[in-house]
Write a structure and sequence with these properties.
It holds the Pfam family DUF2397. This is DUF2397 family protein. The protein contains 17 helices and eight strands. It is an alpha+beta fold. The strands form two sheets. Strands 4, 5, 6, 7 and 8 form a five-stranded mixed β-sheet that branches. The radius of gyration is 34 Å and the shape is extended.
């Protein structure tokens, strides 16, 4: 039979991911839902083992271009080994699985020339399948997740001095690249200096990404184990060594290298525009290209925020120090609960495990007797105190009746002694009305303060503000200052209810003075503007 070529030629790969920032919110949400379907094959109701085997086949090599017959041949070996169900390597089943993956967006269809001996062979051989970019990333994350052990992940502390050293070298490399560009933009020296600069930036961000990932994974494991209520003595000893020794070294290393890293980032911030210009490629691949880390201002801001605090935005170093303090506090609470009379004794855990083994080894009738003897739930009639209100469930079996709260003393120590009980929450209309009146008074005072500031917008320097007006102004001023990353930036904040907006601008050499009944507030090198309902009133 002659070689047959499909009239459509090679089909273009459909883009399965959304274009963020394009269209309205509905389009963005719909595009995100399409991306989330890429994970559907991992939790499919049927044939999820086959889907996983197919995706591993497509992601095991670069530029995989397979037909249904080739996929069926690969699945035959997996079927013999028992990794997929019997019959999944049949060509009709393979075609159905491939079409389902295409529908989810994991695979895309293509065509190519084929020499076939029959129509069926042409149909099976001419339709080719390729894996989409986002599906490759999903499968890569899945395989990595399946390889991760359950224990703690070691923090790559050795990357901290490498990041510090890379930032110092990056400053000198940037100076050499700018000097080489000034002597000859197209010279060999300028090109080599730009390549060396790009190499250092890529290495720096890869090192920081690995460091941040290990820190996140380690503290996620730490939060998983220190909050457990029941710890064996050997577990308590292991966690104590983990916290006291290992975390102390991690935090000390981070705090020791952070000041030098922060100083290096502050020095590079002044030349960030030139750095990004030199890293911008001359042969652009288009606006949809996913750039390497370090090629945008957002990447550098994210790196800076990891080490340096900003107003209202603590750094990850601060979060790491606070998380360590919380972890140590949780461990101390667990140790106190396990070694004192206020919680489960260390031996109670062994007793519960022994009881569970008895239940597992006993027959059904023996298990009922064991349960009754252990917990005192015999088949006798239980007499309870009078309920707080009349009910109509006297004929309801206890297993179907309302649940009763078990006190902490019974649940943790098995102590049935009377410890008192909490009183019922009563309806208190007087307290409710007083709280509502207090809330209305606070709202009225804030409204009066905002009206006072709005009236003084045009002559703020000549007006003496009240304490309430000063409080509202300081609140908005704090939020406006938090929006400024540098001293020469402009910050703005507004009251979301009444529309009063405060804008702070940098003005070298000038000072803004606000007179109040309690003193004078002075803002150096800044000007203040109040805007209410679209009326600008600079001071």
């Amino acid at each position: 039979m002659e070689s047959v070529r499909d009239s459509q030629g090679s089909a273009d790969a459909a883009v399965s991911g959304p274009r963020q920032g394009v269209g309205d919110d509905g389009d963005v949400v719909e595009a995100q839902q399409r991306r989330l379907k890429l994970y559907a094959y991992l939790d499919a109701r049927d044939h999820h083992r086959t889907y996983l085997a197919v995706m591993r086949l497509f992601t095991s090599t670069l530029l995989a271009d397979l037909s249904a017959g080739e996929v069926a041949g690969a699945l035959a070996g997996a079927e013999r080994e028992g990794r997929v169900e019997q019959g999944e390597s049949r060509i009709e089943n393979v075609i159905a699985r491939l079409r389902q993956l295409v529908e989810w967006g994991n695979l895309v269809q293509g065509r190519r020339e084929v020499v076939a001996a029959s129509i069926a062979e042409f149909q099976h051989g001419s339709v080719r399948y390729q894996v989409s970019k986002l599906a490759v990333r999903v499968q890569r994350d899945v395989d990595e997740l399946l390889r991760v052990p359950e224990g703690a992940r070691e923090v790559s502390r050795e990357l901290l001095p490498a990041v510090e050293r890379g930032l110092r070298q990056l400053g000198s490399s940037l100076s050499e690249a700018l000097l080489a560009e000034r002597h000859g933009p197209s010279s060999t020296g300028a090109r080599r200096a730009g390549e060396a600069l790009a190499e250092q930036v890529t290495t720096l961000f890869l090192q920081h990404a690995e460091l941040a990932a290990t820190v996140r994974d380690f503290y996620a494991y730490l939060g998983q184990v220190v909050t457990r209520n029941h710890l064996a003595p050997d577990e308590i000893s292991g966690f104590r060594n983990l916290l006291v020794e290992y975390i102390q070294r991690v935090v000390e290393d981070v705090l020791r290298h952070t000041p030098a890293i922060a100083d290096a980032l502050a020095g590079l911030a002044r030349a960030r525009v030139e750095l990004l210009r030199l890293l911008d490629p001359t042969d652009r691949l288009g606006g949809e290209v996913e750039r390497a880390r370090g090629r945008s201002a957002a990447d550098w801001q994210e790196l800076t925020d990891w080490f340096v605090d900003r107003p209202g935005r603590p750094s990850q170093v601060t979060a790491l120090r606070e998380a360590t303090a919380r972890a140590i506090g949780s461990l101390l609470a667990s140790v106190k609960r396990a070694t004192s009379g206020g919680g489960l004794l260390p031996g109670r855990r062994a007793e519960l495990l022994k009881l569970a083994a008895w239940f597992d080894a006993s027959a059904q009738a023996d298990a009922h007797e064991l349960y009754a003897a252990t917990f005192g739930l015999y088949s006798a009639r239980h007499l309870l105190p009078a309920p707080e209100h009349d009910g109509d469930d006297e004929r309801t079996p206890w297993r179907d009746g309302p649940m009763r709260d078990v006190t902490v003393s019974v649940r943790s120590r098995g102590d049935r002694g009377a410890r008192g009980r909490t009183s019922r929450i009563m309806d208190d209309p007087m307290t409710e009305q007083s709280l509502l009146a207090e809330a209305r008074e606070v709202d009225e005072r804030r409204a009066a303060a905002i009206n006072e500031l709005s009236g003084a917008a045009s002559s703020l320097a000549e007006t003496t503000l009240s304490q309430d007006a000063l409080g509202v102004l300081c609140e908005l001023l704090t939020m406006a200052m938090a929006q400024r990353e540098r001293a020469d930036d402009t910050g703005s904040a507004a009251d979301p209810v009444r529309g009063l907006r405060v804008t702070v601008r940098h003005a070298a050499g000038s000072a803004t003075r606000i007179t109040t009944s309690g003193g004078t507030l002075t803002l150096h090198d800044s000007t203040l503007a109040l805007d209410h309902e679209g009326q600008d009133a600079p001071s």
